[in-house]
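Ticket closed. Logging final result for J domain-containing protein.
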Amino acid sequence: MTEHKGSTSLFAIFLLSLYSLFLFPYTIYRVFGGGSEETVVQPYVQGKQKKSTASRYLRKLFNKGNLVLLGLWVLWGLLLWYVQITSKDLKPFDPFEILGVEPGATTPEIKKAYRSMSLLYHPDKNPDKKAHAYFAEYITKAYQALTDEAARKNYEKYGHPDGPQALDVGVALPTWLFTKDSRLAPLMLLGLVGVGILLPLGVVSWHMLNSNRYSGPNGVMQETLSFYFHSKYSVKEAQSLVRIPETLVCAMEFITLPTPSEQSYGLEELRKLTLRNNGDLKDKPTFWKRRASVLKAHMLLLAHLDREHDNIPATLQADLRFVLTKTPLLLDEMMKIAVLPRPPAGYGWMTPALAIVEMMQCVSQALSVSNRKPLSGGGAKAGAADGLAGLLQLPHFDGDTVKKLKKKRVTTLKELQDVAPAELPETLKAAGLEDAGVEAVTTFLATLPAVHVRAECEVPGEDEIMEQDIVKCKLQLLVTRPAHNSPGFEAQAPQRGSSKAVRAFTPNNPIPHDEAWHVFLVDPAANAVLSWSKVGLVEAEAVGFSRPELAEDWEKAAAAEGADKKDGDRSRSKALATADKFISRYGNGVQRKDGGGGDKEGGAGGKDGAGGKDGEGEAEAGQVVELVFAAPKAGKHELQVVVMSDSYVGCDRTIPLRIRVVPLTRAAQEGRDAKSLAKAKEWADSDGDDSDEEAAARRQRRQRKKEAKEAREAGEAPASDAGSAAGDGDSEEEDEDEDELNSDEYDSEESGELESGSEDEAEDAAAAKGRKPALPAAGGGKEAIKPVEVSDDEDEEEEEEDE
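Final structure:
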């Protein structure tokens, strides 16, 4: 029976293998995947953050993640060193290596080496037990293998001086686990099996079972989506901003939030804090009769909006971070439900969609909902409330600060931004701010983005928008900030084509997040969201930083266009005119011989087209965002393009967009179908055409073939019988003339002109219609045509090529 025993060296190799399987992928992820510090662009620099480039580089290099990675590699190196030491027992028996002699050494050299090793490891010279064992098992046997004939034969035949050895089966576990007097060995073995096998299997099983409870990229529980979609607290069609928190906190993530008894005192203090800032809740018993976990989440959210972070008990700080971490993800899911297409028109709801973004702004800047009015609340009061919210979002601002600013005739955020930089610190200090507050507000004002938008709706390939059309709304966006003019901003400016996000400046929110923009195409009259998109305007800011003059040009162009088309239809769809003009031109029998395309504006280029300057035109377009929606009912519609930031109040942009939708009639549909068929035929013909060189060579071959036929006919028939000779060749010429008429060749792919053809081809065309072409007289002024012999085989090959 084979004896099983442990092997410490094999166990070390086993551990090194498992450790390497974890360490190598993690290192690749850290080096090439990057951390969160490398995926964002910070568009602001505070005074305490103004450090040298070397210090910033060192801070990024020696961050927590890199230090952990360095420690893991040090541990891997130590384990590798241990493997190299313990793996000596696994080496095959080599007497020459043991005695330290070269292969082929003589007997005196072997005896001399043996005596030298005996002085070091013989029991009489070295009392160490390990030295005794090494001398007996290795040195003595190596000497015998090289000096004794029988031992040498065994070594040469079996690889060992003692002859065949028993099978040694080693287990990749420490040797001390297999000692008979070890009582802890079974427990240690059970622990290794449990930690190395059972625990990973249990973790994977638990993860697979719980992963079914979550849905979407945000990892929101499926029960939460069910509550948001159809329940008492679901998203409603006319839900305003003040009702959004009630739906938000009814998430399964907050319902399952534990509320241990140790938090009783902290919850009571949080209740008093909530009542102190929201006195109207005292008369709302339904607010306090909800589940304890939901009530705790709602009160923590209100305390954050009231900027009471320092007054929240320490036992609830972890729950506060959990609520603020989950809130943006839950609001994103609420947005998807609000803009979900609903019958009969297939559009989403505008009022809750805009209110959800306003809630995102409040959470980002810790702004009370009572100070933020919805965009739909028009009027002078709503405008004044929006101006108040813009000021209250600033760090270190409160109601008293705003009242003091009014004495300086500063009532809105725009007026505060217009204050001269030299006067701004004094103005803020007069409002009661200290130096730290002045610096924070100055940084905030420099970070506030300004978005510039241009919009245009079109149905590709059509002149007008018709019912049931799929309309494409093309938006061009630019983003500028006062911080773009700050010295040293070039080092951290966003680049075009970069995958990095822009980090929002949220000094009152302990959970950092990236800037995002919500782009809506809405119909206020119908409370409808026709299309929605959430984007990051990194490219728009990169263009705005490199070309700041474009923002002013866009504003001037918009003002000029509004003055010129004050009573007109601003957003009438523009045609993609290249194919349409071609069809209409040749449908009316018009043929041009100019080399251009016939469009004085340069083909299908729009009003902002760049002509031949493609690179410059692409830069001037900013970041392009396309919204696709189904055309509403026939009539004139006053739509709006709303661009809202999820991080700042007062940076939203709304532009009007008027469209005219014509009724869907049978005649109009048939006209579009005919145009589509004509385009399809044109594209099919253009795909079948050869290159210009091949087409020219083919026309030359046809011309030579015709001249050869005419020469043969002129040589075979006398001049008096020219008419009859021509009549005999009518059938062949008519076939080729029909090929010429149906060839659909063009002089220029750019102009789309039919080729004009030669005089002979014109005569052939006339002959195809029944008129006999006049052949030249035998003794005319022109040179006599020389007959050219063309074989029938070559003629057939040419016809096959033509086909």
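Residues 218-340 form one domain. No further action required.
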